[in-house]
Write a structure and sequence with these properties.
Elements (H helix, E strand, L loop, with lengths): L1 E4 L2 E5 L19 E3 L4 E3 L1 H18 L8 E6 L3 H13 L4 E8 L6 H15 L3 E5 H5 L15 H19 L4 E3 L4 H14 L2 H5 L4 E2 L8 E3 L7 H10 L16 H15 L3 H19 L1 H5 L4 E2 L6 E2 L7 H10 L7 E2 L1 H9 L5 E5 L11 H8 L6 E5 L3 H13 L3 E5 L4 H6 L3 E2 L2
Parallel strand pairs: 5-6, 5-8, 6-7, 8-10, 13-16, 14-15, 14-17, 15-16
Antiparallel strand pairs: 1-2, 3-4, 9-10, 11-12
This protein binds iron/sulfur cluster.
The site of iron/sulfur cluster has 9 residues, from α5.
């Protein structure tokens, strides 16, 4: 099985029976290697090792109390799914609540929602779904019409942080457990270090206590679990996770550092644990003892939504971003045939209709190639047709990010298509 993330293949695993016994139990045939330990073990021993390490982390940092109500925000990916499964297995009696944020990302959020519903049903964990377009009237995709078009994850992050806090209060969660693993933590620590954001590093502790009473504390039970071992757990236990990527996923500085760390790991298997230890035992205590860190803690209440903010104008980052969306009148990216006909009536010849057949590969090409291909139409309205509406939509999204006036037409009857004089058979 291969695993793809942000168009990059990260991990691959093919299970095979080794001609020797498991290093731990010495009874079953070994079928998998624990990458961080370089030992080959059987399925049961892999699972026990994997789950015990999470248990030890939870106990070491006193993450959970029996009376806690623990929320897990599911993304449909391997990390949050594994977290929910292992928490349920280790603590069958704890009050677990799964939450899914449907962010209205076309052709993505719905698929993930179905996956998450199945997972929770199988685990018998209650699931709360927050549908952003239905509740708040906008989608994450809408940021493509703002100056956040090329950093949608940053806008999405602000919206999600707000929702974590709001939903935690609504559901009376005392704890929010997140799926951040060892690779996430160490790569983020290094990224923040290079950016000089020391207070950001201090927030990467395994437990983040609430700033105010009645707020949920945040815990990271996968703090010491390498990402690769989570992937192996998923494959070994045939856990269904989405092998589809959010169309806005970006190659962030932290992802680049993650790659560098993975290369360094080939020389030094313990590099990530060593860095984690230096950061948590040496650097974070130093940062927290500095007077400037203590001063930074002044927090206010957002005058618009009532959530906590560090903004000096008392308007939180999420509310500023939503305000941007409120100013946009036309948020259309996808038109049906009637809407398209109406639209082009007033455009004279300043538009072009492009069939995407046999051009799907451009979606995986570099932005440069995409821009070069569509450059002749830079000043025109571009209407895209494809037999697969998802392809049309993904093209429209990508082109909008590059400032083209692109729309996807959901379905165009063939007879009408052939009659359009603005058609370009590229
Ligand atoms: Fe949001 Fe970015 Fe994650 Fe997509 S990849 S869900 S836009 S943070």
């Amino acid at each position: 099985m291969k695993y793809y993330k942000a168009e990059e293949e990260i991990f691959e695993l093919e299970l095979k029976e080794y001609p020797f016994f498991c290093k731990f139990c010495k009874k079953e045939k070994a079928i998998i290697e624990i990458p961080s330990q370089k030992v080959k073990v059987c399925k049961n021993c892999y699972n026990t090792f994997f789950e015990n390490r999470i248990k030890k982390t939870i106990e070491k940092y006193k993450m959970l109390k029996p009376q806690d109500k623990v929320g897990v925000f599911l993304s449909g990916g391997k990390d949050s799914s594994t977290l929910l499964i292992v928490l349920k297995k280790l603590y069958p009696d704890i009050n677990l609540q799964a939450i899914f944020l449907n962010l209205g990302i076309r052709y993505y959020s719905e698929k993930v929602e179905n996956l998450v519903k199945n997972l929770c049903q199988n685990l018998n964990v209650p699931l709360y779904i927050y549908n952003l377009p239905q509740k708040e009237g906008y989608r994450i995709d809408d940021f493509v019409f703002t100056h956040f078009k090329n950093k949608i994850c940053s806008a999405c992050g602000a919206i999600k942080r707000y929702l974590f806090s709001k939903i935690a209060k609504e559901l009376k969660l005392t704890v929010i457990a997140t799926g951040h693993h060892l690779d996430d933590i160490v790569s983020t620590m290094l990224t923040l270090f290079f950016q000089g954001d020391f207070s950001g590093i201090a927030k990467l502790e395994p437990v983040l206590q609430p700033f105010f009473p009645n707020q949920a504390k945040k815990i990271k039970p996968l703090y010491t679990t390498p990402e690769k071992e989570i992937f192996y757990y998923i494959v070994l236990n045939e856990i269904p996770v989405g092998n589809f990527t959010c169309p806005h996923a970006e190659i962030t500085p932290s992802k680049k550092i993650k790659k560098i760390l993975t290369d360094l790991e080939k020389e030094n298997r313990q590099i990530k644990y060593q860095l984690l230890s230096v950061f948590t035992k040496k650097l974070i205590p130093l940062i927290k003892s500095h007077p400037a860190y203590k001063e930074e803690k002044s927090l206010n209440i957002c005058i618009k939504c009532g959530e906590i903010t560090s903004a000096s104008d008392n308007i939180c980052s999420r509310c500023k971003k939503v305000e941007l969306l409120n100013k946009i009148e036309d948020k259309a990216l996808e038109l049906n045939y009637e809407e398209f006909e109406d639209f082009v009536k007033n455009l004279d010849s300043n538009w072009v209709l492009i069939d995407l057949k046999e051009k799907e590969h451009l979606l995986n090409e570099s932005s440069k190639k995409l821009i070069k291909f569509f450059k002749p139409y830079r000043n025109k309205y571009i209407f895209l047709v494809s037999s697969d509406p998802e392809i049309g939509y993904l093209f429209a999204l990508k082109l909008r990010k590059k400032r083209f006036k692109a729309y996807s037409i959901i379905k165009i009857p063939e007879k009408e298509y052939l009659e359009f004089h603005n058609r370009e058979d590229l």
